Amino acid sequence: MSLRDLYTDVILDHYKRPRNKRAVENATHAVKGHNPLCGDKLDLYIRLEGGIIADVGFTGQGCAIHTASTSMLTERVMGKPLAKVKELIDAFLAMLVESGEADEEKLGELIVLQGVRELHARIKCATLSWHTLDVALFGGGVEERTDTEGLEVGA
Ligand code: ZN
């Protein structure tokens, strides 16, 4: 099995059995995300307690890349303090949108989504939930980042 197949398997596993795909009771944050290029729709729910993500979940509909990325996001930020969450968001967006450099130590399993960078039209599928999380917790400041650069609209 090649590394690429392995990555595909991880993505498909999260797509078929998304983790934390549910609304969160007593959510302190609920934010919508939409990727019109693909049609991915996201409702992201977070319950923040004492600066820690006590619970996180999502509902909505989207493609395999979006669903897998969001499922992995929820697993990774569950129980984490805000500072760690921000570090992870920045590392993930750097891998797909900015420098293209992947900090494997920080990203762990999320590295499987690195290949999406080559599929320009799908980058937003992978980053939608991360931007939405950033907006929900940190007010974003990322709404129109450069992830549409080089995008083949309609591709
Ligand atoms: Zn998509």
SSE topology sketch:
Blueprint (H helix, E strand, L loop, with lengths): L2 H14 L12 E7 L4 E10 L2 E10 L2 H14 L4 H15 L7 H4 L15 H16 L17
Antiparallel strand pairs: 1-2, 2-3
The protein binds zinc ion.
Zinc ion (ZN) binds next to α2.
Task: Briefly say what this structure is.
The chain has about 160 residues and is an alpha+beta fold. About 40% of the residues lie in helices and about 15% in strands. The protein binds zinc ion (ZN).
Rg: 14 Å
What is the number of strand segments? 3
Present as ligands are: zinc ion
List the helices and strands in order.
Answer: HEEEHHHH
Q: Helical amount among residues, as a percent range?
A: 40-55%
As a percent range, the share of strand residues is 15-25%
What are the salient characteristics of this protein?
3 strands, 3-stranded antiparallel beta sheet, about 160 residues, binds zinc ion, about 40% helix, 5 helices, globular, alpha+beta, about 15% strand
Describe what you observe in this structure.
The chain is α+β, with helices and mostly antiparallel strands and 155 residues long. The protein contains 5 helices and 3 strands, in the order αβββαααα. It has a 3-stranded antiparallel β-sheet, covered by helices on one side. A hairpin with a 2-residue loop joins β2 and β3. The termini are far apart. Bound molecules: zinc ion. Zinc ion (ZN) binds next to α2.
